[in-house]
Fold each of these.
Amino acid sequence: MAACRELDSDAEPGLDDADSAASHGDQSGRGHAPSDPKHGSGRPRKSDPRPDSRSAILEAAAEEFAERGVDGTRMEHVAARAGFNKALVYKHFGSREGLFEAVLDAKLAGRQEVLRRLPDTMGEIFVAWSRANLADPSFFKLIMREALEHRGPEPVRKEDRQAYYRAQIEMVRELQDSGKLPAGLEPKYLFLALLAVVTLPALLPQIAALVSDEATDDKAFRDGWHRFLRGFADRLSAPNQ
């Protein structure tokens, strides 16, 4: 991806460096990652002494990319945050670009799971997406970072992401046919409008807080917002009432 074409300032270690991580840490690839209050202690979680290294690195990388952007993220900081050495990060993902794409893949897999488990009623569909969005603020930070930094001709994972959105546009079309959403509106643009509604508090929490005078992680905001979404869905399905 063009957004991360710039080389990491650290030289990429050879794979045999990762394989010999035991000389710097234990056999799992955990090394003496630098202790940095901004990037975690570099120590494994006490509650899970042998977590899956790939998952732990992806989780740490998502936070780093969200906070610093693609160009500002360094592999050594991801490694420190995850509690593994840098050689293992390179062994799993090869490059910063490969790591970003893997993080996005993992995030999209989570969104696909939400899509598969959506409820039947329009109001509860809106609420389900809102809950998923508010529960994963790093997803929208990643998307915003991509929008700000991406300089390539196409977004990362274009085809996979288009398929994900096309499935939802088809759902909108079916809901229009069943009378649960207004007919006469082009489904893809109606989907964009609904996407804007259910994502704004997670995407721009400061704006939502200024408008509502409630923080988006407050129960009062979430209860009120979800009550609104259910009512909004009712009006969409019965616009003349």
Amino acid sequence: MGYDRNPWKLHKSVSDGNKKYLDTVVNELNSLVKLRGKVIAEIGPDRNLDMAHKLTLRGARKVHCFNSATFMDKAALERAKKNEKIVFHDSYLENNSMKAGSVDLIFAIATLEHIGDITATISAARRLLKRGGVLYLQGCPMWTSPRGHHIWIVLPSGNRFFFSDHTNPFYAWEHLCYDTPIKMKNHLARDRKWPADFAAQFTEFLFRYYELGVITKKTPTYLINKAKKMPGWTMTAERSISPNSIITKEYYARARKLYSEKDLMTDNLKIVMVKK
């Protein structure tokens, strides 16, 4: 969970797997903008600010992190205060008051699927970035992907069900075929033979997540096209295919009537924009 009192040393609780992940992301960002001496802004940082600390280790001059404090680990926020290169903003990028043209790189990792208004985010980023500055937006899994439901449930019994591993209880694209809580709950109880309370809990999670605006149902194609229309940028977009899911022809065929094949197969989306 973050860093200890020495801001130049990774906290012992950061796993080896997470260290490798941090290195991979930081290396990719460094390939876009040489990080040493740069001012960076992170949209939707991880709750422990591990990425922000890692960027300071790679020589970033300042890392501004934008998120609601309610999503953050309180102990991690206290630890971050000991690293003078990190500034946490209890707000979103769209509401910032930083000096225009003061940032070299703005990035969001595993956050694009949480951005409700991509045009507002891009507009705010354009104001902050220097000419030639980079905006890097990445999201996974996107709503239309086989596992875009983002199920992340731990039951009182201790049993857990996560979209990201073998405990994912939904078939690929199943979440796209039942568009109301009643339809989904009845389907799970009647067709999938789930216990009624089990079906109700999963349905509540699924729909409450989107009602709260935590996840956007915007398709990858929609997000790409919106970004393309924003003036004053050069832009590239990259889609990655979904990893293993339990594929069913029935759900794919039904979802295909609503969404394009390209969007249904896009799990990971990256949008990179350079300010002209």
